Predict the structure of Probable lipopolysaccharide assembly protein A.
Amino acid sequence: MKSFIIAVLVAAFFFLALIFGARNEQVVNISYFVAQGEFRLPVVLACVFLAGFLVSWVFAMYHIAGLKLSIRRLKKQVAANDTIADKANAVTETATKEVDA
């Protein structure tokens, strides 16, 4: 449900950017390191929106991958601790039976 809400919000922001861009047919001058260009405002807005989305997505995937690796490592630790606990319980049960006998 959470991912659906996020997808709807992203689509709504993109739709608003398209509406804003459609109402503004101005030509803007963009100067970058070695060149200069004239572009329509909707094209510039769409490119900037897409670039921001992609950068955010890359950072989110990096963070999620780190969390998944942490989860995997912690699950292995829990499994190892469970094995040790099972062995300790078996030793305790054996010792209890020997004392009772």
Observations:
- Residues 2-100 form one domain.
